[in-house]
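Sample A.
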Amino acid sequence: MALSSKRYAIDFLSFVNASPTPFHAVESAKQRLLKAGFSEIRERDSWAETVKTGGRYFLTRNGSSLIAFGVGKKWKPGNGMALLGAHTDSPALRVKPVSKRFAEKDSFMQVGVETYGGGLWHTWFDRDLSLAGRAMVRRPDGSIVSKLIKINKPILRIPTLAIHLDRQENFSFNKETQLFPISEDGEFKPLMAMTERHHPAVVDLIAKEADVSAKDVLDFEMILYDAQASCLGGINDEFIFSARLDNLTMSYCATEGIIESLESKDALDDESGIRLISLFDHEEIGSQSAQGADSNLLPAVIRRLSTLTGEGSTSSPTAYEETLVKSMLWSCDMAHSVHPNFPAKYESHHRPEMNKGPVIKVNANARYATNSPGIVLTEEVAREAGVPLQLFVVRNDSSCGSTIGPMLSAALGARTVDMGNSQLSMHSIRETGGAHDVEYAVKLFKKYFERFSKLEETIMVDSTT
């Protein structure tokens, strides 16, 4: 493996290992942006005196979605934006609001969990599991704050039944009654106390991680995660073996891509547009939430930025609509690599491979939002970046997944391309990706941000000429 590819792959490992939940993923991206000179702003504040041309900024919503952007010094209201979207969530088991369970005459503690997204749940059996998320805690001064929690040791496990007791050829189980992780060990209140809703031992672990007493843990949102660290694999370190490749790979590459495109102090001097990434929560469950791609988050940010005036420019009542028409969205979500043991599941002329570059995803029924103008612009960017591309469509007799691309394309009316790196075992607790593809995606995204404003003007569809 080339040294540069390995450097990117190892850096991604540090990102994914630090990010077992969307809350942690946003925090990881936030720290990288701060280190790169971005300033944090808030949705609830006026940006009139804060956001300036030539500046680099980011904001978060719910601590699980993030938008970051750089404003060109030549920006004028109604100019176009290079948009790139990804998502921070992955299928997982989430602790129920009342999780305390006991089994077999109280010899085992069990933790009630809820399935989140379309996971391959059988892969969660016999894995070393732990807890991560956020807790709402009361501080000594009485204020209530959110604390990130990541318990760095395996504390839970979902054991399979021994083959001697159930020789079923196809492993099946009930998600409500047989997917329990196990462990061993008078005043009016609006809800039961936390130690009544959850095992006291679990609450104690969370309190210790938050550096508060158990009584000050008021509520939490916890996700089970695989305690085994992500790593490089393969004879030549050509693979990444990891949880949450879908879609922290694209979240990482988006963050690094915009950071690298803005590394030089004069990166925005000749830029007439805005470079923007959006990392959304809740894609795996349909995106219909306050912080999902189907919310007002991205349209609201674009609307506020579209009227931003720079030196010598004035606002226009149609600036928002003009901006959307001139903008483009890259919807970046992981794609399917051809599986060597199941080749018949793939369309014969669209068989992406890992380590062969990002995959452009096409679907005639608009499950992906890609069209020809988008492909042409992406090809131009890839050519300049020296990055190979691949194409993917599903077989006519196969179902097709979807992404944030179609919903954002419909909401914004901006040209859209769906793409992503290829992987195996999508939605498993342990997925496989290509180590070289991390560098490919970062280089492609960097070039996209650098070149979009100039390329956009050369690819016309609804032209009067």
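Sample B, a different protein:
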Amino acid sequence: MTYFTSWEEFAKAAERLYLNDALKCRFVTKYRHCDGKLTLKVTDDKVCLQYRTEHAQDIKKLEKLTGQLMRHMASKEK
């Protein structure tokens, strides 16, 4: 499990992974206050994508990615 160094690459890969199989995809966020680190993980049990940051401005990027994934979830037809 390696970490992405570029936010854009991580966001595109995470969205692609979700669109491939939405029912198996999981999105986990973890924040450690003592370290000031935010860790994001998107997995479908076969592929694991991770991103770690210490920058506060990345929170806005996280909100945007979460919004995109939520729009995909809301627009999925069952």
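Observation for Sample B: DSSP finds two helices and four strands in the chain.
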